[in-house]
């Protein structure tokens, strides 16, 4: 396996030659590409703290053109892919050759009769949703960046969001994929019975080698793979490769089926180029009811969440007091409305609150975080009853304020603050101090929150780090956004120290370091320590079997180091 393409922006003679040969093929095959400096610069950033500028950006029209590109790419060149550019980890960044599928490969076919859709990887989520909602259907694993993100990124990162509590992450909603592998051939990966699976493993082809590897890995490491997510009993995981998801067992017949599509979900384009996916759609439910509460005592969280979760909510979300206070500069109308609600300010006094600000704020009242829970059903009576029971039961907890949201304006304000909280904290900039997504995707069992949050805050306070957090608390997923001074010559060491401390805590509590953003540049260096040698070596075997020449997004998932973080971090 070759190393990363190059450790600097300076092209080697070998790379210049390989780029020239590639350009010649692209011209001959009439495959659209550019080396325009502005386009390359626009492709050099995502939502992470990293920057890498590609040498070429290619806009393939179909899987056949992608196959041609893959067959001609050779070391020291490699391939990255890009969709909406909303990734937090640096996964779509490359200094070599970038495939942008969003110009041509945008086909969407909705199959309402079976609640499925066929989508090409260049489609944006909002375009898919526009078509699916014509049938009151949607892909329920959408993230908070749904207005900007692409389906390719959602699948590449195993994204999820506010509906994942009920409907799962993207990996639970992808039924099949097509992907171009390292031999330049497009393959179908879908559910099959055991006989067909074992027959695939006998093929004398790259496809056969892959199925053989999966078969042998499942047999040789069965106990470790079974215990992997028993030791980490959380609902979502986007780190590593999800080989544990390949097998399904019918609870009634006990028969096994096999599907390699989950290996690609969360793989961040490191195994091949996904071209198309079959996704599961969910019917939108007609009636909704939202409850909202301010929490003062973190030790009450497990009881609060256990109560809410027992009533089958569709979403359970949170944001902390730091996020709320920072939101005041971005969404004053909405934070004022929540301040009014929590402080009991009457409508006639609201004008004074807006002009002079209330003498009493939610911070003054001692709230440390806020929880919102939404119930959804096709029955109005069911959601009303669920919300009523939760409010009554939780109001018995001392110092907890619980509200059933009745008016549309307040409903919209609560969700506005939650849905924009990630951007509010992620885009934090104060001189050379920047938000650094690194521990922003951790997940722990909900039952451990009373242990996790105080210990987490203690780690951050001990290191003098300002932060805000929010997230899909019903799943146990928290978005913790720390702020670092990027001009500090020791900043990478400080980021590294924080990551090691938090990931060790996460491991101790049975969680995972990535719920749905995956690894990229920022978390790949910690995979071996987190999973241990046996599981990490399984990841290496998977990568090497799919991609023996290391042409697919090298340095992500496998082989990334702290030096990569230092080398590619943005300069301030």
Overview of the structural elements:
With 572 residues, the chain is of the alpha+beta class. It is 38% helix and 17% strand. The chain has 22 helices and 22 strands. An 8-stranded antiparallel β-sheet has the order 18-15-17-16-21-22-20-19, with helices on both faces. Strand 21 and strand 22 form a beta hairpin. Helix 12 packs across helix 16, helix 13 crosses helix 16 and helix 17 runs antiparallel to helix 18. The chain starts with 12 loop residues before the first helix and ends with a helix. The N terminus is likely disordered.
Distance between the first and last residues' Cα: 35 Å
H/I helix tally? 22
| Molecular shape | globular
Tell me the number of strands: 22
Question: Would you spell out the secondary-structure blueprint of this structure?
Answer:
Elements: H1 13-28, E1 33-34, H2 37-42, E2 56-58, H3 63-72, E3 79-82, E4 97-100, E5 108-111, E6 116-120, H4 125-132, E7 137-138, H5 151-157, H6 164-167, E8 174-180, E9 186-189, E10 192-193, H7 194-200, H8 206-220, H9 222-231, E11 247-249, E12 256-258, H10 261-264, E13 273-280, E14 282-283, E15 287-295, H11 301-309, E16 315-320, H12 321-327, H13 332-343, H14 350-356, E17 369-377, H15 380-394, E18 401-404, H16 408-426, E19 429-430, E20 433-435, H17 449-462, E21 467-471, E22 479-485, H18 491-508, H19 520-523, H20 527-531, H21 533-546, H22 562-568
Parallel strand pairs: 2-4, 3-4
Antiparallel strand pairs: 1-2, 5-6, 6-13, 7-14, 8-9, 8-13, 10-12, 11-12, 15-17, 15-18, 16-17, 16-21, 19-20, 20-22, 21-22
Helix pairs in contact: 8-21, 12-16, 13-16, 17-18
């Amino acid at each position: 396996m070759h190393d990363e393409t190059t450790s600097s922006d300076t092209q080697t003679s070998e790379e210049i030659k390989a780029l020239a040969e590639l350009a010649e093929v692209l011209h001959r095959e009439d495959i659209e590409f550019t080396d325009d400096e502005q386009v390359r610069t626009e492709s050099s950033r995502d939502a992470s703290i990293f920057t890498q500028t590609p040498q070429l950006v290619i806009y393939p029209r179909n899987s056949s053109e992608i196959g041609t590109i893959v067959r001609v790419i050779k070391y020291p060149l490699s391939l990255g892919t890009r969709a909406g550019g909303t990734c937090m980890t640096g996964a779509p960044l490359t200094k070599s050759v970038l495939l942008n599928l969003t110009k041509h490969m945008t086909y969407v076919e909705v199959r309402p009769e079976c609640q499925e859709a066929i989508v090409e990887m260049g489609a944006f989520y909002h375009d898919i949703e526009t078509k699916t909602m014509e049938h009151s259907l949607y892909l329920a694993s959408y993230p908070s960046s749904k207005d900007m993100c692409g389906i390719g990124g959602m699948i590449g990162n195993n994204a999820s969001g506010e509906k994942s509590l009920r409907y799962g992450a993207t990996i639970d909603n992808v039924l099949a994929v097509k992907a171009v592998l390292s031999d330049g051939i497009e393959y179908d990966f879908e559910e099959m019975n055991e006989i067909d699976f074992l027959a695939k493993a006998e093929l004398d082809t790259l496809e056969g080698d892959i199925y053989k590897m999966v078969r042998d890995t499942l047999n040789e490491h069965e106990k470790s793979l079974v215990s992997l997510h028993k030791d980490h009993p959380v609902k979502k995981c986007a780190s590593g490769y999800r080989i544990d998801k390949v097998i399904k067992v019918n609870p009634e017949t006990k028969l096994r089926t096999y599907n390699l599509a989950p290996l690609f979900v969360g793989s961040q384009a490191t195994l091949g180029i996904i071209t198309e996916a079959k996704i599961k759609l969910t019917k939108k439910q007609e009636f909704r009811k939202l409850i909202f509460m301010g929490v003062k005592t973190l030790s009450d969280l497990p009881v609060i969440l256990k109560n809410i979760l027992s009533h089958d909510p569709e979403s359970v979300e949170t944001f902390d007091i730091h996020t709320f206070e920072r939101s005041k500069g971005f969404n004053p109308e909405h934070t004022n409305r929540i301040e009014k609600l929590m402080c009991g300010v009457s409508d006639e006094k609201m004008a004074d609150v807006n002009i002079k600000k209330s003498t009493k704020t939610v911070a003054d009242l001692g709230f440390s975080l806020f929880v919102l829970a939404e119930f959804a059903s096709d029955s109005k009576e069911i959601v009303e009853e669920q919300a009523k029971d939760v409010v009554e039961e939780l109001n018995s907890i001392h110092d907890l304020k619980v509200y059933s949201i009745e008016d549309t304006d307040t409903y919209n304000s609560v969700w506005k603050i939650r849905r924009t909280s990630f951007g509010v904290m992620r885009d934090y900039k104060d001189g050379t101090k920047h938000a650094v997504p690194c521990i922003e995707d951790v997940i722990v069992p909900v039952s451990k929150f009373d242990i996790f949050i105080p210990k987490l805050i203690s780690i951050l306070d001990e290191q003098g780090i300002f932060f805000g957090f929010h997230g899909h608390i019903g799943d146990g997923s928290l978005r913790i956004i720390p702020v670092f001074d990027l001009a500090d010559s020791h900043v990478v060491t400080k980021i590294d120290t924080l990551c090691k401390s938090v990931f060790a805590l996460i491991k101790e509590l049975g969680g995972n370091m990535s719920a749905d953003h995956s690894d990229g540049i920022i978390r790949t260096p910690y995979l071996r320590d987190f999973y241990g040698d046996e599981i990490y070596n399984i990841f290496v075997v998977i990568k090497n079997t799919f991609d023996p020449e290391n042409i697919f997004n090298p340095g992500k998932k496998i082989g990334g180091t702290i030096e990569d973080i230092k080398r590619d971090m943005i300069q301030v």
